[in-house]
Write a structure and sequence with these properties.
Layout: E1 14-15, E2 35-37, E3 55-60, H1 67-78, E4 84-89, H2 96-101, E5 106-109, H3 111-116, H4 119-128, H5 147-157, H6 169-179, E6 184-187, H7 194-204, E7 210-213, H8 220-233, E8 238-241, H9 245-251, H10 257-260, H11 262-278, E9 283-285, E10 302-304, E11 310-312, H12 320-329, E12 377-378, E13 381-382
Parallel strand pairs: 1-2, 2-3, 3-4, 4-5, 6-7, 6-9, 7-8, 9-11
Antiparallel strand pairs: 10-11, 12-13
């Protein structure tokens, strides 16, 4: 959870209902520095002017009035507003996390609330209660509820021993990177949904170590996709890890090991190179999700393994639909092979298209009785998983 910055926003802006309607004329091209909107504002008159509005302040007359949150979602998701969006008014600490999830970039607190809650009190409240104030937007599904009921829900759910329970994916990622500063990495396969975590990292810490296994057997489209995402997202510490050339020459001189002994090929080109590269790290960020396998159904966001290593699963509670929505929201480029029917993408010789109705993982090592490459840290060691994974298609 980011610290509350009470000095982030200085301007107050002009109220839409006090402005000359000509200001919002679609034929104008001058910028509007800041605009204030009441929670019940009709956006019809200002939609055409949104690209010119640098900041929008949505007023909250009372913490019990949630219409401003809905207005923020409409501005961001339906109208694609990209300027600074500020929640302004009678908000309380519990609502800060929800404001961020609804698309607000900042919260400007009314003086009356600041008089009751110091910055230290805000930070303490956020640490103690990081669920949204409406359960419908938190981990549990169900109707909206009062803030007081949500507090009780948070207390019960924290018995799961997951210190990151209730955090959004972005907040979990941000907190993990800060907590394991310099001792955490992300291994990216550049698969069908890899752009999601890469995009989040680019907005939080673009120089985070990101490891990609350049096995020498990738689709050329995967390598082009890697280069595109590095450039588009501004990732500055993207590290390609290749197998040892001497070991490749000794164990796979003709490049056909995948056809005769796939497990050995994966060990040579994936498991051993990655272990050499990241074995010194104490924490790893993964893209694993609860819906993928029965074994992951109770997977926490912050997972402490035997031996003291940590796996952080920011997307643990995400569905395939959440992945799709995120990709669309931020207009992230899709892997070029995905549209061709490759729903799980690995090395070219061991990846095939997936037929309609098939498990997306069916295209990996088809007809070989193999389901995993072996990259999985267990008790501080990289070990294979025997069970086949299943995925929703997004």
């Amino acid at each position: 959870m980011p610290k509350l910055n009470l000095s982030l926003v200085k301007a107050t802006g002009r109220a839409a209902n006090d402005s000359d309607p000509v200001l919002f004329d679609a034929t104008r091209n001058d910028d509007i520095e800041a605009l204030r909107l009441p929670a019940d504002a009709d956006l019809t008159d200002i939609v055409d002017a949104l690209p010119r509005i640098q900041s929008i302040f949505i007023e909250f007359a009372a913490f019990t009035d949630g219409r401003g949150f809905s207005l923020a979602r409409i501005l961001k998701s339906r109208h694609g507003y990209t300027g600074l969006l500020v929640a302004d008014g009678q908000l309380i600490p519990d609502q800060f996390a929800f404001a961020l999830q609804c698309g607000f970039d900042a919260v400007r607190i009314a003086d009356s609330e600041l008089g009751r809650h110091t910055p230290e009190a805000w930070d303490a409240a956020l640490e103690a209660f990081d669920l949204t104030y409406q359960r419908g937007y938190a981990v549990r599904s169900g109707p909206g509820t009062s803030i007081f009921d949500a507090r009780l829900t948070a207390m019960e759910d924290r018995k799961t021993d997951d210190p990151f329970f209730g955090l959004s994916a972005q907040a979990a990622l941000r907190q993990a990177i800060a907590q394991h500063d310099g001792d955490i990495f992300l291994a990216s396969s550049l698969g069908a949904d890899s752009a999601v975590l890469l995009h989040m990292v680019s907005r939080i810490q673009p120089d985070l170590p990101i490891y990609f296994l350049d096995t020498g057997k990738h689709f050329r489209q995967t390598l082009a996709y890697r280069d595109q995402l590095i450039g588009d997202l501004g990732l500055t510490n993207f590290i390609s890890v290749a197998p040892d050339p001497d070991e490749v020459k000794a164990n796979d001189p003709d490049g056909q090991l995948h056809a005769t002994y796939a497990d050995a090929c994966c060990a040579l080109r994936k498991v051993e190179p990655l272990q050499r590269a990241v074995g010194h790290f104490g924490a790893q960020i993964t893209g694993r999700k609860r819906y993928q396998t029965p074994e992951r159904a109770s997977m926490p966001i912050y997972e402490i393994r035997e031996g003291g290593t940590v796996k952080v699963n920011p997307l643990a509670y995400w569905s395939a639909k959440d992945v799709t929505n995120y990709i669309r929201r931020y207009d992230l480029p899709a892997h070029p092979m995905f549209a061709l029917g490759y729903l799980s993408i690995g090395c070219q010789p061991c990846t095939t298209r997936v037929a309609e109705g098939e498990d997306p993982r069916a295209g990996r090592w088809r007809n070989q009785g193999k389901t995993e490459c072996g990259i999985h840290m267990v008790d501080g060691k990289w070990e294979p998983l025997e069970r086949k994974q299943t995925f929703e298609a997004f």
